[in-house]
Design goal:
about 240 residues, alpha/beta, six-stranded mixed sheet, about 35% helix
Length: about 240
Amino acid sequence: MLFHARRTCQLRLGELAALGLLDRFRFARAGGGSHPWHWTLGHQGHRFQAAAHHRPEPTVRVSRQTVHRLSANPHLAHLLTANEFFVRLTAHARQHPEERLDRWWSETITTKQYRTITADGHGLWSVADITVGFFLEADTGSEPLARVVAKLDRYAQLTRRGGPRYPVLFWLGSQHREAHLHQLLRSQHGAVPVATATHPTDPAEAVWLPVGATGRVRLAELPSDHGQPVADNPNYDDDGIFVL
């Protein structure tokens, strides 16, 4: 997100780790060698984060436990996939000043704000004066496609309550799985706009295939409705004004 050169980024990560601001872990490969490093906050990083959010300062033991829990998280690959989506949008925006990622909400924040949906993330992507909201479903191939499609029911319920009618973006691991998903999606009622793309792509570009369409479009070209200024729509403040 922040560096043009990979080597420069690696050197900076090493410096931050030496200061205790970052920590890292990696896993052994079955055939020998190791997978790439996973970087996360170190103890000093956790201390600064606690201070910024007015929380009690963690002990060294608590900080280490946090890293261990992350490394043992069975959903780590899924978390990395979802984060990679937003990282690519952020990197794209650095190279295109007229485009920007105005909102990056994690799964936890999205669930807290919208309550009835469990998206892997939510964002607002703006190009000039156009702002498109979206919900991300980062697919790693671990779920049957029928279960993936069933997630759309809750998004439809959100829309019926006056919430936003944002496109649900299924980011998939292969074109083969994408094609099978479209076969299932064509039989849906279409209450929620849906588009798909695959992991190797730049999500800001013309890589999104809406259901029933024959051509791919850019993220900013997908249909998006911010919903009504109702009580459970976090897009609006108490005065009914749209807020980023």
